[in-house]
Amino acid sequence: MFGDIGTSPLYAVKECVDSAHGxxxxxxxxxxxxxxxxxxxxxVVTVKYLTFIMKADNAGEGGILALLxxxxxxx
Length: 75
Hints:
The chain contains three helices and no strands. The longest helix is centred in the middle third of the chain and has 27 residues, at 27-53. The chain is mainly alpha-helical. It has one domain.
């Protein structure tokens, strides 16, 4: 697992089409790898949004001002 979200897909694709793994870098395989990366990032962002942001509300109120009301004041 690579830590940087910007370069991780590049290293992941390099490892996926490495000859040591036996997967040839055909058009179909590269399309499948890129699709997997895009869907993985999409699902991670969606799940995080649904898990954390949708549960953050201010007594049933939504919007940016309601979320800002939840931020503790600075000392």
